[in-house]
Amino acid sequence: MEPILTTKDLSRHFGGVLAVNLVSLNVYDRQVHSIIGPNGAGKTTLINVITGRLGASEGQVLYQGRDITHRPVYERVRQGISRTFQITSIFMGLSVQENVRIAVQSHLGGSLSIFKPRGGLTEVNAKTGAILERVGLTDVNRQPANSLAHGDQRVLEVAIALAGDPKVLLLDEPAAGMSPAETDQISELISALGKEMAVVLVEHDMEVVMKISEHITVLHQGGVIARGTPREIASDKQVRDAYLGGDQWAPLTKI
What we know:
By secondary structure, the chain is α/β, with parallel strands linked by helices. It is 35% helix and 23% strand. Strands 6-7-8-3-9-10 form a 6-stranded mixed beta sheet, sandwiched between helices. α6 links the parallel β7 and β8. The model has no long low-confidence stretch (mean pLDDT 89).
């Protein structure tokens, strides 16, 4: 099976600081591929380069076999690459439905006016409703986004990312700040999405990562120090020494 997304010796430096250093990885369709590492390892920078928000200093990004290294963000989104962010990025003053509906309209090429009569937006409304049902937000679709619990706000971000019918979905710390119940909810959603598309997950919660990932890449100081299955990563001494020692590792000893 050919990977849907590949990076080849991808690097990004900021002056004399090498934030991403010769990172090569293969992401496959219908798998959850997690990227882990300590703070400052280069995880978010790598995601930003893959999605085009930062330019690559060296190396390549290939999507479905095509070089997209220098393609703008909007082209990558149109081709099927969507993402969420570390910091919640939604329209807090709009309803849940309106947040998703605007994203759907944008991807379908229609007017972004939220005041357009609903009768002329049959396709948009149908797709919006389907996405909300898919992520479990139908019951709160009329509520303002700022009234949602933190976990539901993060789920709403995922819903917005799904508006573009992505083939590759990149999630940057979606479980950050969540309660245990909210973490379980987002984990189940990510796992389900990983059966439909390629999911690239950046996450610090190791129980989540080990539970739902098919493949893991470990970054340290901008470079790859390990790659493999959850079991392989759990037994890798270099990973333990660099990142996962002590109490953080204790819940994973049963893997």
